[in-house]
TrEMBL record:
Cofactor requirement: Mg(2+)
Pathway(s) where this gene product acts: Amino-acid biosynthesis; L-serine biosynthesis; L-serine from 3-phospho-D-glycerate: step 3/3
Organism: Cyclopterus lumpus (Lumpsucker)
Keywords attached to this entry: Amino-acid biosynthesis, Hydrolase, Magnesium, Metal-binding, Serine biosynthesis, Signal
Protein name from the UniProt record: Phosphoserine phosphatase
């Protein structure tokens, strides 16, 4: 009897999970808006790590990024400390974008095109820097007013002056705040968040569903919290074709 009970619990849990997975896929197919994280999701790299390498302080910053994305320190603390190490100039940022433009993750272009064809609004919500994210948005034909990211500040001579701490994306729960704002502004009822990091998971709710992405890096904590976890954008593209 005990064995039967244990088997029933396992079956019930598995069935419930599958039902929820099915519901998440349905929400994705019927979404009014899809919000993507950028670093290690839409693009292959972490923008702040690339900037740090370009400025010669890569190792120190990469470890801090790992902690921030894994959720072991607040995002704002990690961002502040990383930028205080990098202290990039406007010229260095512009040269990074010119010499080492962000590399799109395979399949993202096709997925965004398909979403646009279905009249699903696409947004980029990033804890990275707007100057880099805007470059990505242009490549994907995403309107720049659909971009939410952090803004670097520079003195008149181009030297680093900090970042705009008033931006919601500077906070750990910033992506959720942006989604709440989008729902209020556009009247969206169904919004999906897609990303690889802890701040992406935290955006659901208010997002209607969260899809974990591990195509560039697998963060175990995020994978465990994702009922639908994909390693390629092709998996999501196939779901869209089911309608």
């Amino acid at each position: 009897l005990l064995l039967f009970f244990c088997l029933y619990i396992v079956y019930f849990s598995f069935s419930s999970r599958m039902a929820t997975l099915s519901q998440i896929k349905e929400v994705f197919r019927r979404a009014e808006a899809v919000c993507f994280d950028v670093d290690s999701t839409v693009i292959k790299e972490e923008g702040i790590d690339e900037l740090a390498k370009f400025c010669g302080v890569g190792d120190a910053v990469t470890e801090m990024t790992r902690k921030a994305m894994g959720g072991t320190m607040t995002f704002k603390t990690a961002l502040t400390e990383r930028l205080s190490i990098i202290r990039c100039s406007r010229e260095q940022v512009n040269k990074l974008i010119t010499d080492h433009p962000p590399q799109l993750t395979p399949g993202i272009g096709e997925l965004v095109d398909r979403l646009h064809q279905r009249n699903i609004k696409v947004f980029l919500i990033s804890g990275g820097f707007r100057c880099i994210v805007e470059h990505v948005a242009t490549q994907l034909n995403i309107p720049l007013d659909h971009v939410y990211a952090n803004r670097l500040k520079f003195y008149f001579n181009g030297e680093y002056a900090g970042f705009d701490e008033s931006q919601p994306t500077a906070e750990s729960d910033g992506k959720g705040k942006v989604i709440t704002m989008l729902k209020e502004k556009y009247g969206f009822k169904s919004v999906v968040m897609i990303g690889d990091g802890a701040t992406d998971v935290e955006a659901c709710p208010p997002a209607s569903a969260f899809i974990g992405f591990g195509g560039n890096v697998v963060r175990q904590q995020v994978k465990e919290k994702s009922l639908w976890y994909v390693t390629s954008f092709g998996e999501m593209l196939k779901e869209l074709e089911k309608i």
